[in-house]
Amino acid sequence: MTKFSELSIKQQLTGIISLVSGIVLLLACTALVAYDQYVFLRTKKADLGLLAKNVGNDCRSALMFGTAYVDRAEKSLAALEKVPQFLSAAIYSTNALFAFYPPKGFVPSVAEPDGLPRFEDGRIVVFQSIFSREGDELGTIFLNFSMSERWDRLRMFVAAAAVICIGAFLLIYFLSSRFQRIISQPIFELADTARHVAEQKDYSARASRQTGGEIGFLTDQFNGMLAQIEQQDKELKDVNVQVRESEHRAQVATTAKSQFLANMSHELRTPLNAIIGFSEILADKTFGDFNEKQSRYVQNILTSGRHLLQLINDILDLAKIEAGKLVLDPAKFEVSSALRDVQVIVATLANKKKITLALEAAPGLPPVFADQPKFKQVMYNLLSNAIKFTPDGGRVTMKVALQQGDPGGGGPGAHSTVSAKAGDT
């Protein structure tokens, strides 16, 4: 069974209006039936009391003259048979039963004290005293009437009330299903617009304002929200267009840069290879011997040329990095030797600022397994920065040490590493 909260607002409004109106109508009909019963019983008691008084007055002379006039009293009681719902009646003298009717009807053998009419077993009975004109008590009259009229009247009113309730409820349901549109139609309009926006992504849609009050305010706020979303969506689309254009320009620039680097590296490599080649010939002393100073200068030219060639190769590696195709070429080499080569390259920068370069290498360092050119490039960048930010006349020290790691399942020093640090003072 569907929960009430899951029904549409149209069904909820119709159901609430019909339920409340039906309950009010049912209570009104119940009150009407109850009031009719109350009026009927009160009228019945008053009529029975008046009837008892009139019949008692008719039988007053018979009581005064004694048993010789019993027939006259019974004749007065027999006249009650014309009254609807009559069952029996009796006249009591001060001593005993004086007259009664009908002959086989139910009458008490002894009169009861005077009182108001009362209800007994679906009957209404009354005992009322009879007085002479002088005010002396002559006897008592007893009247007994059926209350079947009450139940017939109750059934009739209940049936009429049920018909009225059913007809009125159907009318209420019909009217409520029509008038609920005043409230539900604007909400349906909002829901349809929201569904259209969600499905079509059309933020230019707007809900029509059909009423005022809170629903009209809700419609205005909803349309305002759509206007803000439409503006933000437009701005987002413009930004996306700009991003795509920027991405395209960046792609073009990257392609141009890669092409430029390839061309420039080729143009630089040709003369640099010649310099390195002639430097190697001079270093090998093919055309004669050099003094110590000349040999040191030739070696510096050869080391710097090789480093410059490595820089050119690194520039080419940028394109490989961007393409995700850079491949490391690890091999075993001596750290101290590689650092001395880097020290020779940056010596010119250090001499300009009169900075002292020092290398502190722990004895007995084992060879390391890494990409030597990349290692030299990292140390070159590290030392260059240290020299750049060290005051003139300072000192830059490179420290190399062996760090023992957790051997795990291998032999001693299976996971040892070599650390290289540069510090300035």
Q: What level of helicity do the residues show?
A: 55-70%
Distance between the termini: 84 Å
Instruction: Please give the CATH architecture of the largest domain.
Output: 2-Layer Sandwich
Question: Stretches where pLDDT falls below 50 for ≥5 residues?
Answer: 409-413
Q: Average pLDDT across residues?
A: 81
Using the coordinates above, name the CATH class of the largest domain: Alpha Beta
In CATH terms, the superfamily of the largest domain is: PAS domain
Rg estimate, integer Å: 61 Å
Account of the protein in words:
Mean pLDDT is 81; it is low at 409-413. Helix 1 runs antiparallel to helix 4 (148-179), helix 5 (181-200) packs parallel to helix 6 and helix 8 (335-352) packs parallel to helix 9. The protein has three domains: 4-178, PAS domain (Beta-Lactamase), CATH 3.30.450.20; 202-327, Helix Hairpins (Orthogonal Bundle); 328-425, Heat Shock Protein 90. It is 60% helix and 15% strand. Strand 4 and strand 5 (137-146) form a beta hairpin. The two termini are 84 Å apart. It is an alpha+beta fold. The strands form three sheets. The protein has a five-stranded antiparallel β-sheet with strand order 2-1-5-4-3. It has a three-stranded mixed β-sheet with strand order 7-9-10, with helices on one face. Strands 6-8 form a two-stranded antiparallel sheet. The protein is rod-shaped, with a radius of gyration of 61 Å. It contains nine helices and ten strands.
